[in-house]
């Protein structure tokens, strides 16, 4: 009986570079972070053998370093000071290798002016009030209720350095609130746990400049057991008895 050797299937490699195209500021020193590379086996999400850069003039300015705790993540860093003028574009090719398989991805990195200012919030602490059962009142839209908004500005002159997004990283807050990354609008999307009387969490604004800069503000949402509505132009809250309860 003749046994036929089975070929081991070649597992596909996934190679992702974020952001791409990317940016680095003029005269950035060695060790400046430029992008994050995620490299893994597509069907198992396991790590691959290695990631590298194709040799060339552009590649001489950069290094790829593997993350210590997540072997699927690699950092694209500057290897030496960036001495190219603003507007210059580095063209790189990254490779992912795994047991005889190989994949490549083209990466572009544009030299820009240095990011000078982090986004700045107009308040250090925001205070909002939310009715516990607001999602079941006539003020809810699709089971969601607007709580309020945070506002930040960025003083950089260049558009690429002044654009930013808002984020919430607190896991408990993310379960209850949705934050619009562009407008800063906070929406209640789930019911408050019965024992929760208030919740305080951080909101972050991070820009897209090089180096990326961020700032934080605090948000406290107080849970009201009685519905409250603030009419246009009024200075206080008016208590209402609503007919819609869970």
Detail the topology: elements first, then pairings.
Blueprint lengths: L12 E6 L3 E4 L7 E9 L8 E4 L8 E5 L6 E6 L10 E10 L2 E12 L7 E2 L3 E7 L13 E5 L2 E2 L5 H4 L1 E4 L3 H6 E3 L5 E4 L9 E10 L6 E11 L3 E2 L8 E2 L7
Written account of the structure:
By secondary structure, the protein is mostly beta strands. The chain folds into 2 domains: 13-112, Immunoglobulin-like; 120-239, Cadherins (Immunoglobulin-like), CATH 2.60.40. Helix content is 4%, strand content 44%. The strands form 6 sheets. The protein has a 4-stranded antiparallel sheet with strand order 1-3-6-5, with no helix packed on it. A 4-stranded mixed sheet has the order 2-8-7-4, with no helix packed on it. β14 and β15 form a beta hairpin. Mean pLDDT is 88; it is low at 4-9 and 230-246.
Query: From the coordinates shown, what is the CATH architecture of the largest domain?
Result: Sandwich
Mean pLDDT equals 88
Q: Counting H and I runs of at least 4 residues, what is the number of helices? A: 2
Question: Based on CA inertia axes, which overall geometry fits?
Answer: globular
Describe the strand arrangement of the main beta sheet, using strand numbers. Answer: 1-3-6-5
CATH superfamily of the largest domain: Cadherins
Structural class: mainly beta
């Amino acid at each position: 009986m003749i046994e036929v050797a089975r070929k081991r299937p070649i597992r596909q490699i996934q190679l992702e570079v974020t952001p791409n195209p990317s940016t680095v500021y003029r005269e950035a020193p060695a060790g400046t972070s430029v992008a994050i590379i995620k490299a893994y086996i597509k069907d198992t999400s396991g790590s691959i053998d290695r990631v590298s850069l194709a040799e060339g003039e552009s590649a001489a300015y950069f290094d790829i370093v593997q993350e210590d705790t997540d072997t699927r993540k690699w950092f694209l860093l500057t290897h030496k000071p960036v001495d190219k003028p603003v507007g210059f574009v580095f063209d790189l090719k990254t490779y992912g290798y795994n047991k005889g398989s190989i994949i490549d991805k083209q990466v572009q990195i544009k030299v820009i002016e240095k990011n000078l200012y982090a986004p700045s919030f107009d308040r250090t602490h925001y205070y909002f009030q939310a009715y516990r059962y607001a999602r079941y009142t006539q003020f809810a839209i699709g089971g969601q209720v607007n709580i309020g908004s945070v506002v930040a500005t960025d003083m950089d002159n260049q558009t690429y350095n002044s654009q930013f997004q808002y984020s919430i990283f607190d896991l408990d807050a993310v379960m209850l609130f949705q934050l619009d990354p562009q407008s800063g609008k906070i929406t209640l999307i789930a019911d408050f746990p019965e024992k929760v009387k208030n919740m305080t969490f951080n909101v972050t604004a991070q820009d897209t400049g090089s180096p990326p800069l961020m700032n934080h503000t605090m948000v406290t949402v107080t849970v009201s057991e009685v519905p409250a509505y603030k009419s246009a132009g009024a200075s206080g809250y008016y208590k209402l008895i609503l007919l819609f309860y869970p």
